[in-house]
Amino acid sequence: MITAIGAGMGIATVQALMPAFIKRHFGANTGRMIGFYSSAIVGGAVIAAAFSAQLASTLGWTQALSLWGYIAIAGLALWWAINARIRDRNTHPATATTTHSPYWKHHRSWSLLLFFGLGTGAFMLILAWLPAFYVSLGKSPEFSGYLLASFTLIELITAFVISGVIHHYPDRRGPLLVSLTLVIGGLTCLLVSPLALAWVATALLGTGIGLLFPLSLIVTVDHIDDPQQAGDFSAFVTGGGYIIASVMPFLAGWIRDSFASLAYAWLLMATAMVILLLMAIQYSPASYARFGQKVTAH
Predict the structure, then answer these.
(1) Are 277 and 181 in contact (CB under 8 A)?
(2) pLDDT, tens digit only, all 298 positions of the chain
(3) Are 19 and 34 in contact (CB under 8 A)?
(4) Which among 209, 237, 211 has a CA at the least distance from the CA of 222?
(5) CA 251/CA 217 separation, integer angstroms
(6) How many domains would you assign to the chain?
(7) d(Cα 161, Cα 96) in Å, to the nearest integer?
(8) Which residue range is the domain that position 7 belongs to?
(9) Which residue blocks in the chain are alpha helix, DSSP H?
(10) Which of 205, 191, 196 is nearest to 264 (CA)?
(11) Which of 2, 5, 172, 211 could potentially form a cystine with 179 if both were Cys, beta carbons 3.0 to 4.6 Å apart?
């Protein structure tokens, strides 16, 4: 538990600070770089999940898990070198940022927090329960594992693709509506014909969630121009959002125990995605400016 808490604190700190760093150093390319950054999060998770069990079989769980710590040390060394180069190039003194009113006072802050939380919750729900769902339908663990692997691979590819083209969509609502429609379609497949449409559902969910996760981060940072405030705001949204998302696998387990089926969990998440679709329509570029004016008013 102690090591899990320590790792969690480190990950939370990085995810709070990185959006501000990206916005400060990449300017107009912020959306694209945050897309690549979120893709790297997904890719790292896929690699760790894919290789940890194999490493454990040869090295044991203690050594297998500690290996990722060594990779984190390598990341620290790389970051140290990058940061030194950035300091050498930065000849302009840092300017003080404007004060802002607390984010929790504004409706849009809570809207984005809920949006990120439910969207990420869909990812956690599929990751936790898709294999168990198909095993309960009589499929082999190997088949269920292939489905999960396909889901994560499709998600990773999609996240990288949207990262490369997102700068063509300054109004993020179009890609958001596409992503949410795909997730709703995948969940509908799990409800109406999970066996016949297993691969269709996997493709729709992987593509939809692969779009939704980076877009949720990008839309959040779009709302604030100042890099430091963007980092603070991103920490507020993602911190609360991950708390909401972490409840989803537990809630699905409770539903499965109560109704002997995960169908109601898929239905509940599909309903949540419809709500997010209605929320996404409100996220116009003009609303970013209005929100920024509100939080910087003093």
Answers:
(1) yes
(2) 888 888 888 887 887 778 778 888 887 788 788 888 888 887 787 777 667 777 877 888 888 888 888 888 998 999 888 887 777 666 554 554 556 667 778 889 999 999 999 999 999 999 889 989 999 999 988 888 888 888 988 988 998 888 888 888 889 999 999 999 999 999 999 999 999 999 999 999 999 999 998 899 889 888 888 777 877 888 889 888 988 998 999 999 999 999 988 999 999 999 999 999 999 999 998 888 788 777 766 5
(3) yes
(4) 237
(5) 24
(6) 1
(7) 36
(8) 2-91+103-292
(9) 2-26, 30-59, 61-89, 107-136, 141-165, 173-192, 198-222, 227-259, 263-280, 285-296
(10) 191
(11) 211
296 within 8 A of 113, measured Cβ to Cβ: no
Asked if residue 52 is part of any domain, the answer here is yes
User: What local confidence, expressed as pLDDT, does residue 18 receive?
Assistant: 83
- Residues 123 and 213: beta-carbon distance below 8 Å: yes
CA distances to 223, 278, 287 from 282, in Å: 13, 7, 8
| pTM greater than 0.85 | no
CATH number of the domain to which 11 belongs: 1.20.1250.20
Evaluate whether residue 297 is within a structural domain. no
Amino acid at 194: P
171 part of a folded domain: yes
Question: What interhelical angle do 141-165 and 107-136 show, nearest 10?
Answer: 150
The Cα 251–Cα 249 span in angstroms is 5
Q: Which two tokens stand for residue 20?
A: 């501000």
Residue whose C-alpha is closest to residue 131's, from 118, 146, 152, 119:
146
Which residue is associated with the tokens 């993602």? Answer: 238
Instruction: Read off the amino acid at residue 14.
Output: V
In a domain, residue 96? The reply is no
